[in-house]
Sequence to fold (504 residues):
Amino acid sequence: MQRQPFFYDITLRDANQSLKKPWDLQEKEIIFNHLCDLGVHGVEVGFPAASDMDFDACRRLSEISPSQMVISGLARAVEHDIVKVAQAIESASRPRIHTFITMSPFNMEYVLNKRPQEVRKLAIEAVTFAKNLIGKKGEIEFSVEHFGDCLDNLDWVISALKDVVSAGATVINLPNTVERYRVKTFVDMVEKVYNELPKEVVISVHCHNDLGMATAATVESYFAGAIQLECALNGLGERAGNTNMYEVAIALHNSGVTTGLDLGKIYETALVVSEMANVPIYEKAPLIGPEALAHRSGIHQDGALKTKNMEKGAYRAIHPSLIGRSDDEKIGFTSQSGKTAVFEIVSSAGYPITMQEAVRITPIIKEKAEAIGELSDSQLIEIYLKEVFEPDGPFKLIHFEKVTDELFNLGFSYHDKVYESQGHGNGPLAACLQALENVGFPQKLLHYEQQAIDEDVLGSAAIAMSIIHLEGLNGEAVIARAKDTSTMKANVHAIFNGLNIINK
Ligand code: KIV
Ligand code: ZN
Fold:
């Protein structure tokens, strides 16, 4: 049976200590309220021994913390820090003292300058002291700093952890303090600890993202037995950051695990955190990046558009609404894009277009994109308006007037040679086609329709749009359109647009 993960947020401690300007009490309270809305299960509110400001913030957040939420403060394995934490979080309903010491051979030797036996003793003493202070009301988390570097002395670490558990720690946190090796190496180590410690001990992981694999290490550690997942909002934290909470939550959700979080709050939280931390969201950041829903290659655009309204999309990990994102998948037009993108961009902007027209104008739009890079929607629509409503070509309409109800005069040029002609017909369309035929330009009209334009998307003066299908000499039918305040002019312009499209 799968257990629900315990999301432990460390934004207010680990991430905060990495900010260029750490948050003050008011700022921490804003972030804390977002964490409550997200529904995280525990929050490390700070490092009370670091400064009076952090101590006060930890006190305040403990006072306002919801009763079901675990609240911790971090302490080195020294009495002074542990006392500070106990004082700062005393009003939380579920207080936790989190103490740590490194157990990696490298750090014990070169940073602590202590032998393993001394470190083990300090760890046990710190946990015993903390447990006595907090009593039955709270709990103790112990972290093996640099656990990811403990492959060579893992058996010793596990035996030390058994003593730490006997001294009163109920949560054992295994940090990848610096991510240096394979995810699998780390996860196997986590699994070994999980298998060897008593089953009632909560195994936790805390991964930094130095090689960009913190999400993977955290997610896989969950499946290897770690229930508490220490994560930070927006992946903030020392150096390349801590594990990004959103990515872990969504990866677990997609894998069928109930996260217990309100995933719909993710996007809004991300925007607030980015602004408050003064750390912009990388445009390609998974899930929350401005570009995370953009498709530019023709194949991807086609798949994305075909599955746009489905929960599972051809080229996205989630439906954006899952994380509260209301912006749709963005279709950006570059030289790699195709007809589907043209069709989507033009029609989403409210302009009339058929797929056949999109196919016709796509090479022209691509040529422009090749020259200048990605086109904005308005640049693309400008080309569409020109190519659909005023396509260049050898034919130019000079004049067209009604002489009697059935007789019309037509003047036009073809490759700069001017023609004057007359045509009969029960309407301008038929008369214009006859006038063209009379001077050697017969055309076959396959289809005609008139649309009233009630919105001013095509210019407020336009009231009529004619749509015709003309057959070219090669038998291929083209679609041509024209708009005008006069229906007669719209019809005749549509014929000339069609002629130019066929004869381009
Ligand atoms: O990265 C780390 O090892 C830590 C511990 C103090 C938990 O932040
Ligand atoms: Zn850390």
User: Anything to note?
Assistant: The chain has a mean pLDDT of 94. Residues 366 and 421 are 39 Å apart (CA to CA). Residues 294-389 form one domain.
